[in-house]
Amino acid sequence: MKRNKSKPNGSSQDAAAVISASQLGQLFEDEFRDIYWAEKALVKALPKMAKAATAQSLIDAIEKHLTETEEHVQRAEEIFSILGKEPRGKKCEGMAGLIEEANSLIEDTTEGPMRDAAIISAAQKVEHYEISAYGTLRTFAKTLGLNEIVSMLEQTLEEEKMTDSSLTELAESSINVEAEGQEADE
Ligand SMILES: [Fe+2]
Ligand SMILES: [Fe+2]
């Protein structure tokens, strides 16, 4: 049955068969389509967050993660191709809600440190959602024996975790301190 020498970790046919053979495989595919939709929505949402931010350090952090998010979309498309599936997303209501909340937080705050603090809080909720989604997908893929996909998911997961901690660092080192220093009636 070994026909495809160019794919050391199993051919597309193998991965596709694994996915369709069990309910866990189908759940994996379903949740993977959800995060794919979420990543594509973030490619559109992050530039708005960067535009609303004031501190250059926050703008830089969001823009850096926008580049990574574009790579997450590409990586997800590579995973679809390993699975022999069309890259098709399924609306992620969770991420849609988080993005909506981010937009209203931006509208409800005055430009400057307050709005920056709000943007960080919204961005961290997004990262935590992604960390949880990729953590689950990685564990499903491990159980299914999809080793190549496990390491691709782990790469994305690491970048989400790094982003989350750099946002914490930004909040603690400067932005929250400045926001706290603003008068309540300003
Ligand atoms: Fe991502
Ligand atoms: Fe992210």
Describe this structure in words.
It contains 6 helices and no strands. With 186 residues, it is mostly helical. Helix 1 crosses helix 2, helix 3 runs antiparallel to helix 6 and helix 4 packs antiparallel against helix 5. The N terminus is likely disordered. The structure holds fe (ii) ion (FE2) (2 copies). One fe (ii) ion (FE2) binds next to helix 3, helix 5 and helix 6.
What's the structural blueprint in terms of helices and strands?
Layout: H1 12-21, H2 23-52, H3 56-82, H4 93-108, H5 113-144, H6 147-180
Helix pairs in contact: 1-2, 2-3, 2-4, 2-5, 3-6, 4-5, 5-6
The structure holds fe (ii) ion (FE2) (2 copies).
Index terms:
single chain; 186 residues; mainly alpha; elongated; disordered N terminus
Count the E strands: 0
The gyration radius over C-alpha positions equals 19 Å
What is the N-to-C succession of helices and strands? Answer: HHHHHH
Q: Assign a percent range to the helix content.
A: over 70%
What class, by secondary structure content? mainly alpha
Please state the overall shape, judged from the principal axes of the Cα atoms.
elongated
End-to-end distance, in Å? Answer: 71 Å
- How many helices? The count is 6
User: How much of the sequence is in beta strands?
Assistant: under 5%
Mean pLDDT: 91
At a glance:
The protein has 186 residues and is mostly helical. It has helices spanning 12-21, 23-52, 56-82, 93-108, 113-144, 147-180.
